[in-house]
């Protein structure tokens, strides 16, 4: 329980996730007012983020609520996952890989049902860190303090020995409230310096 630990977020940190404008394009294609997709799907997106709905049920609700044929629903979901998965932050991933054996490594991510399978296939995060805590599997999202407690418990580390890295200020503040050290991701260079300083200050 005294091991030094680094836990990272995925989207916006290990993945570079830029807005692709896919939702607006679908609204234009379907002749829907701006914001219609979010309004119709809000509860489904929420359920998917905490795992109270299956991936198949998400697909079915997309088709029914937006009036999509099978080929359209397939294309809609493909666009969703393209933006969600982004591209790998190769520099930071390589740095974290170099930390293996030096400290405990984990991931804590607000996620969506189906994310583990896709991110494992694309980015092999399961080989990068020891434990991945996804909100859709845990049933709890950041900034709920229980999410941070679950991440520390999964690695059997004390919160104060752990550095959490996230690109959302509210999550960084919540990690600190949970007793962890925390860093707001803004760029790779600053994040790598902060992780190095955390490890240098180890036991």
UniProtKB/TrEMBL annotation:
The keyword tRNA processing does not apply. GO terms for molecular function: hydrolase activity. Gene3D superfamilies: HAD superfamily/HAD-like (3.40.50.1000), Putative phosphatase, domain 2 (1.10.150.240). Keywords: Hydrolase. Pfam families: Hydrolase. It comes from the Bacteria. InterPro entries: HAD-like_sf, HAD-SF_hydro_IA, HAD_sf, PGP-like_dom2. PANTHER family: ALPHA-D-GLUCOSE 1-PHOSPHATE PHOSPHATASE (PTHR43611), FLAVIN MONONUCLEOTIDE HYDROLASE 1, CHLOROPLATIC (PTHR43611:SF3). This is HAD-IA family hydrolase. It comes from Streptomyces spirodelae. The lineage of its organism: Bacteria, Bacillati, Actinomycetota, Actinomycetes, Kitasatosporales.
């Amino acid at each position: 329980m005294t091991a030094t630990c680094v836990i990272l977020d995925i989207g916006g940190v290990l993945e570079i996730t830029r807005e692709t404008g896919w939702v607006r394009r679908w609204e234009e294609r379907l002749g829907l007012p701006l914001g219609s997709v979010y309004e119709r799907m809000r509860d489904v997106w929420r359920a998917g983020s905490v795992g109270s709905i299956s991936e198949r049920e998400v697909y079915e609700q997309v088709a029914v609520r937006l009036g999509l044929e099978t080929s359209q629903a397939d294309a809609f979901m493909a666009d969703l996952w393209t933006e969600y998965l982004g591209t790998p932050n190769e520099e930071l991933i390589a740095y974290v890989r170099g930390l293996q054996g030096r400290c405990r490594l984990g991931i804590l991510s607000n996620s969506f049902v189906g994310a583990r399978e896709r991110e494992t296939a694309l980015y092999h995060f399961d080989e990068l860190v020891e434990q991945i805590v996804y909100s859709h599997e845990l049933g709890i999202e950041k900034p709920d303090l229980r999410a941070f407690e679950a991440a520390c418990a999964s690695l059997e580390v004390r919160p104060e020995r752990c550095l959490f890295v996230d690109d959302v200020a509210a999550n960084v503040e919540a990690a600190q409230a949970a007793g962890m050290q925390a860093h707001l991701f803004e760029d790779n260079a600053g994040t790598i310096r902060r992780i190095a300083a955390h490890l240098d200050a180890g036991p």
